[in-house]
Amino acid sequence: MVLNVPRGFLSGASALQTANREQDEEVGFLDATPRIHQLPGNPANPNSAFFETRVGEGVRFFAFMLRENELEETREETIEGAEDKVFQIKRNLVAPLTVEENGSILGLLFYRWTVAAKIGDMFSNAAVARLLACLETEGCR
Fold this sequence. Notes:
Layout: H1 15-27, E1 36-38, E2 62-64, E3 71-79, E4 82-89, H2 113-116, H3 122-136
Antiparallel strand pairs: 1-2, 3-4
């Protein structure tokens, strides 16, 4: 199992359109209410040791807003040596995800940020940091 945040590549669409497409493909949330919001901050450069980030280029990060009553506990896991709860979106709110050859995700689980920040994937680490910064400054509420 690989843990990381949903993501995708631009394909002739805007960053927001791409984020919405990825939500459809990887999260499958059925509610049509706009829930995706771009997180503040400059676009990120995944390889700043070798490349400059040109104006308008770089990785952008988005938040998918959920209400607490849209989540359900799936199980308890021992994570980082402590028992912790793992959540998912209630099944009646998402379309069934299908497995495709292109590496589609098999499910979407929510872990505490303290667990997600320790995932070895740098995009996931950056997404956690951007979300925490946004929540801290009231930018995401």
